[in-house]
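Hi Q.,

Before the meeting this afternoon, I wanted you to have the adenosine-5'-diphosphate prediction in hand. No need to reply - just skim if you have a minute. The sequence and ligand are here:
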Amino acid sequence: MSLAAPAPAPPVPPGRPVIVLNKVCKSFGAHQVLRDVDLTVDRGEVVVIIGPSGAGKSTLCRCINRIEVINSGSITIDGVPLPQEGRALARLRAQVGMVFQSFNLFSHRSVLDNVTLAPIKVRGIPRGKAEATARQLLDRVGIADKAHQLPAELSGGQQQRAAIARALAMEPKVMLFDEPTSALDPEMINEVLDVMRELAASGMTMVVVTHEMGFARTVANRVVFMDDGRIVETAPPAEFFANPRSERARDFLGKVL
Ligand code: ADP
Ligand code: MG
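Predicted structure with the ligand bound:
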């Protein structure tokens, strides 16, 4: 028996898939919400998911983060299949950062605590180190001066940037955004999109559900159009917006553009 530390994992080559969904199906009772969804997201890729309300976009994100359990098919994160139980699931889930429409910050904790809680509790990072990282992240999202305030003392845009910092503190391999700007007043949308643009430029792998077509056009590597639980089409944004292939995508774009 060897007591030597295990060899470090070899570096993951760029372009290797981070998320792979294979024939994913999800139902709530008799209502099928995801129908044979196949999706591969490569390292460093930004995939924007668009589609009408009820298409299954949020459910897809929640299945990738294992907040919802799929009925059939498979999901792998960086080569490791979901679902898993207990600690292995917690570790895997920690690799997938999620930002919701409704911020979901802990309301009675300071912004700094919001960013440090999971790294300290889930990853066992010492408080001093977690706080140093949190301050860097708050600076990166432009709210370094808000560290000791409560979420309610921040604007919606600042709260959402705090939520992004909180997700990044876990050093995720991929970030999921589910309509991160839909609850914001118009003047605050860009400050959040700018943080997301910066994140994309830094090489983060991202899946973004949004109605911000400007963001989709300029930041996405691929646009995925969903309707009625299916991926109807997927294409680079220039191609998708200039020439949507499906009737349903044309119809949808006619309403939102
Ligand atoms: P989208 O995000 O594209 O608007 P959702 O994934 O939220 O779509 O919802 C897809 C469908 O699944 C909708 O018909 C919705 O009512 C249904 N749904 C979502 N979550 C649940 C749930 N927890 N229980 C029952 N039905 C749900
Ligand atoms: Mg939704």
